[in-house]
Amino acid sequence: MAQMNLLQAINNALDIAMAEDDSTLCFGEDVGHFGGVFRATSGLQEKYGKERCFNTPLVEQGIVGFANGLAAQGSRPIAEIQFADYIFPAFDQIVNESAKFRYRSGNEFNVGRMTIRTPYGGGIAGGLYHSQSPEAYFAHTPGLKIVVPRNPYQAKGLLLASIRDNNPVIFFEPKRLYRASVGEVPEDDYQLPIGKAEVINQGNDISLLGWGAQMEVIEKAAELAANAGLSCEVIDLRSILPWDVETVAQSVMKTGRLLISHEAPITGGFAGEIAATIQHECFLHLESPIARVCGVDTPYPLSLEKEHMADHLKIFEAIKRSVHY
Amino acid sequence: MNARTNKPEAYTNGAEVHTPSFIDGHSVDIPILKLLKEDGSLYPNAELPELDQAKAEKVYRAFVFHRVLDERMTAAQRQGRISFYMTALGEEATTVGGAAALAPQDMIMAQYREQGCLIYRGFALTDFMNQMFSNEKDLGKGRQMPIHYGSNKLNYMTISSPLGTQIPQAAGYAYGQKLQGKDAVTMCMFGEGAASEGDFHAGLNMAAVHRAPVIFFCRNNGYAISTPSDEQYLGNGIASRGVGYGIKTIRIDGNDVLAVMKAVQFARNYALEQQAPVLIEAMSYRLGAHSTSDDPSGYRSKEEEAKWQAHDPIARFKAWLIHQKWWDEAQDKALFESLREEILAAVKVAEKVAKPPVEDLVTDVYDQVPKHLEKQLSELKEHINKYPEAYPFTAGRF
Ligand SMILES: Cc1ncc(C[n+]2csc(CCOP(=O)(O)OP(=O)(O)O)c2C)c(N)n1
Question: Pfam family example for this protein (chain A) (predicted)?
Fold first, then answer.
């Protein structure tokens, strides 16, 4: 075991993936010698050469389109989009191409070996264009997998699983935690399952569900609730697509209550999908309406970031409302 | 080019050859316009832009203001007073000179490193400060990171971070100006990195085909964050692309403010008279870091930077002004000193202005605040009232 921060865990996973398979490539804006603006690809060009780890021109649609072509040919591309806010120029390549390659060709071709890594999320005084959490746009697209780690251990295990998964995966990295989250990470190779949630805290009064950086906020709220005598079950969804209905439903059948929290605006956010499914699965077990604590339905602001965010206090209040419904 | 001569059959009129050979973009010689030498003297036959003493002084004052602003705000960022800053060190001639050659009614649609345009157009020091401190007096209502300025009054479109998005928009804006018969053009500024984006290609093609009076102004400063231009493109700069799209194109020395002004005046006349686009590629160098979050020592050498230091556009122009007897060292020193004081004082004022009120969170998402946002706002206010100490900027203001 070694102490790593989230970036080091990602770098370590990329290193393992590149070492094991010559057809694995890492590329994106500033990814080469400089190691990426967050330094996730540090040292990889020195180790594996300019042909396998390189800077691309500044064109996201080009980066993902290139990855699609590489993956279709049999390579294992790991493309970095510098900020999730800038994934939208590549939207067409992702939702119309990566997601549909296998289906439209009757499995004659596929781009299953590709992974797109991108830093997402707010709380870093980044304003409109360095704070977005766009997972819901992609969750609406069949054919993609979406994974969001919450700490260094998960980041390494889930990234290795994403790289080796035979479907295109978008791997959203919580950039607020890049350096802030430090923990024990095995130096050896390991994988965590995609599509499987993790129950991080057992409890009886309500189930709290989230993913990525939001887990930290949820755990803080659960602490406040514990001080107020409420016992929360805390679940990290880890994969948005496919998502683990079974684990969430089982928890809700036990606690009778569910609160979902994400950073993205509430309307059309992935919490809505979860609420609808769990309502269907657990209707007779529910003791209060499923609560959603999410971002306000506005673009992500700068000055009023605190007000916009689904913070621990808003979650704590919603827990109380739910339990005392 | 006349649209009618552009039919495919016209291509068959070229010289006939009977052994294959490629055309190499680099074999096409693209000249570079230079008027002012490093020592402040003019090249023989240099054709000067329209420029009298008053205007020359205005340009130089904008230069000095820019330098001092960059110096002071970088320091303010290091002291933790603002979260972020971007300097334009070494590139001031492109933006100040560009704005100086336009008419005030011309629209400027920029990328982010073009504060120089606003400085020349007279954006108030307090407006700069309020934006950078994202306080309640910021014209952008404190929603964006520092340096994302915008001013309707000064015809400077608010900056959007996603690169290249302003390029097709500028084509559309200019086309609108054309349809309305306006005596105005749009100048669209971007870096050589942004010129890789799909939006660049879309924008140039749209402007060319629809003959929009837009000046595409590329600041080719050698780097896009850490990526040097030789990893950005292999063609003959950005200028060769203008030629490819059928757009009148000129390459200039971007550290020579007289060349910048001359080229932009020339481009503006063409765009206005012909109602068609122009591309300018200004060759320069980003002397500073990409932003305060960047450390260029990780990807380029001190020697390289030092070499470009010698091409400083401000020193070059100052030398010319002194040659002209329009400026002297004593005036220069006094100007730097007074601006340093003025800017420092303005920082102290702006950082004390309140943050925007909580209502500003939900306004301007739509023209009017819709019901669901009204509801979210009132729930938020109720929540803030419960925990006033957790929301120090907005609590107690309603
Ligand atoms: C669509 C998009 N992708 C990536 C970024 C991140 N980014 C911000 S500035 C920059 C480099 C831009 O370089 P260039 O256009 O050459 O301008 P310069 O900074 O050199 O003035 C990058 C990659 C962005 N803002 N938008």
Answer: Transket_pyr
